[in-house]
Design brief:
Length: 402
Amino acid sequence: MVTDGAARRAVRRLLGRRICVPAVWLAAGAAVVPLAAGATPAVGGAASTLAVRSSTASTLPLAPGMRTFAPPEGQVYTGVSAPIDQYETFLGAAGLRRVAIFDQYTTPNGSFGWILDELRRLGVTGMVSWSLPGNGTLQSVADGSEDAYIERQARTVAAYGRPLFIRLDWEFNGTWYPWSAVGPGGQTVPGNRPAEYVAAWRHVVDLFRGDPNVTFVWCPTLYDVSPRSGLSLGEWYPGNAYVGWIAVDAYPGSASWSWMQHGTDALDADYAFAKRTGRPMMIAEWALSSPGTGDDAALMKAFIRWMLGHPLVQAELWYDYDDAASGGANHELSAFPRSASVLRRMLQAPRILDSLAGATGGCRRRAGRRDAGRALPARAYDRPQRVDDRAVSGLGSRRASR
């Protein structure tokens, strides 16, 4: 059996970097290095480039979209991305018996099978972070060259028969993944332009159409790509008929807290975008870091206040990996005891949910273990909202200076 550790090691070998970078990085020559704690990235201003241009809005007739599995208004799923063998350690540090969403990574063009087996064994709803670089460009996904592989994964997921979040080719607006449109030196990557990303995304979703247990998570990172490329983040948006959740990866301390809230394409802008699309929002990766923030309980409180102060944020997943051996930082919650205490208090609030099946109460009122990960009946709160992509396309445009 392929383990999650083997999957992540394979990704590191192929990508030459840790599986996920913190929120904001600067490119220095061919290397990508994190900003110092408290630093502010060089950006072209606070105005958001989160505009869905008409070229990327859905050309299909108004469609209800896909099922989201979103909780009732005002409630939040708690989750984690962690090695399988570290799952119980995280639960202990967080004061939980389980999480609502457990995220796992595929290898590049890898199988879902072992991940779904582990989710079934643990009795937890999963999110698959799907590394789909195709043959090296997204054009190979969009033109059908990878259909046999993608259809195998769709059949595997259909046989699984339980709710599943799929975070396809995340952090696309960075410069560090094979599906990035812009390389570390600022060069455009042929075959990976935003239009090709959109075409690839739509093609994949179309191959999964008809599966009522799948929702797709569109997930940029807090990184202002526009100074290097002139691109706006909204150019990557596939359209409401193809997206279940708007997500973002945001690591406290990777830039100044002020910029993380108010900077170009930062948290406030992402939230406004989610609100306009009518989709729930997920913080798909967040964590403290050592070295980096250290055990900064005040920063933890600030980030939690931001999440809980924005009602469309309906899922949060802590990134519980120790990436020090691969040149990154340790993000394991157990390494930050004071901050972990802050998070534990948050997770005991009635609005925080540790199960999709138990979506009527908090972590103190738990559904039975047998309920976790089971297929759920349709409910009013997870019926897709009818939001016309043509209306979304008029939300703005690239900055005039571009």
